[in-house]
């Protein structure tokens, strides 16, 4: 039998009819009891004070322990930082909490899980209400298989809030039964949209280039069209993930030149297989006073960025390999001067791709106006490389150009429209880059398509009864007979018409925007320029076009936001989360994302990118 202290809830040994001396001794030492005692000689009890912060003002108030609030904050802590439920039962976790407040009552992992599910339902209802006030939502989706061989589909919604801030929320992280066909993916997405009540708000969906995704998009598009809920006439409904296309292109190119860097790869592999060899190599690095910040990295064949990292580190330590050869007669893969020259060329190419990928795959995903310029850089590099007479460069370039033309041979309207809606570029970037991206007999067609799409999208934002102020003024003027005589032109009017630029009263906002000069920010502001802030500042001037700009610029061009739910900087969902029930995994992943977004918390990676580890 156990006795329980009513003040600190501590359990003590007790036997019916037995001694109670130890119970009295505990009461004398019990801190919570001391805090509540009002002794005859001790005067009134001393209240605990706390600072409440309300709208930035600190207020002194009497502290009151709130058990419900403590459990609510406990749930947020475990969900946001992805702590395992079992940690709440750890002895020293309980000791720590009691050191903060002796009134803390420990809970079981099952109780914490139930609290998490309750909060998930509450937070989901709050997010539903918020999304009800959003006009257009863009989607990204990706698939992942856990180490229990359970397939999950992550669906992320992207939208602009009332403050012109880009927002993203993971809507679903649900199991997907195999086979993962296009119909299965489309049905799962449709169920999610109906559950959230946003099936009439979807403007675009961004997916990778799997054939099943093409079918899924076709089915979804047909469904939206049948219900008359297809925005923009479906012109930009399907967005292909640019980061995925770029990865496929580079992988194809590198498969053609594996032999070019074979000696460097084998050298790194030979050194990293033995700690003693690696130690000897590093000692030479120190003796030559070279940088020791980057260690040798062995690439992973399926990850081109690891190949870039391997070449970059090897080239920095180029002089070390020959000296190491003098100390190890078993080392047989010393790269020749020609090998180093070729490696430098490949590294130079991969550096450009790496810079472009950083833009594509930013944690804080970029707006759609930034992508066309990056694609043009890639195309320009391929064009320059195609004139190289060396065999390995020709082989690599030919393979990559085939992949580039397959996916970007036709104009990407989201990318092009986003560029036009950047006031630094407008149509100038289109006119400059398209002749370099597309064949001479075809680039004008793509330019015309962009301009036609701009006009079409703009008209979507014009209501039936909306009119330009100048047109309304003209109609009123014409309807007044007393003013009709004043409209007759004289010699001065004729002179003005022939010697001046006339601004037509019925000129559209898009014509006004494009006819103005491009915006030129200062050198320091150029790279950090925020197109959304510019449109927000000019929303009164371009009432309809600014709405179009905020929706187009917020369209994600990559699926990075959805992929981050599975892996970010080398972090993957660990074995613990994979062992949970699918509905629990969904609650933790979704609610963790929502809370981190609300509180501005960034989840740190659990492991560093494996290609950057020393090994």
Describe the protein's topology.
Blueprint: E1 2-4, E2 11-13, H1 21-29, H2 31-36, E3 49-54, E4 57-62, H3 67-80, H4 91-100, H5 109-132, E5 137-145, E6 151-160, E7 166-175, H6 182-196, E8 202-207, H7 211-226, E9 238-240, H8 242-255, H9 262-272, H10 275-287, H11 304-316, H12 318-327, H13 337-360, H14 371-385, H15 391-408, H16 413-420, H17 428-437, H18 443-460, H19 469-478, H20 481-484, H21 491-499, H22 509-515, H23 523-526, H24 531-537, H25 543-553, H26 560-563, E10 567-568, E11 571-572, H27 575-578, H28 582-599
Parallel strand pairs: 5-8, 8-9
Antiparallel strand pairs: 1-2, 3-4, 5-6, 6-7, 10-11
Description:
The protein has 615 residues and is of the alpha+beta class. It is 53% helix and 10% strand. It has helices spanning 21-29, 31-36, 67-80, 91-100, 109-132, 182-196, 211-226, 242-255, 262-272, 275-287, 304-316, 318-327, 337-360, 371-385, 391-408, 413-420, 428-437, 443-460, 469-478, 481-484, 491-499, 509-515, 523-526, 531-537, 543-553, 560-563, 575-578, 582-599, and strands spanning 2-4, 11-13, 49-54, 57-62, 137-145, 151-160, 166-175, 202-207, 238-240, 567-568, 571-572. It is globular and about 110 Å long.
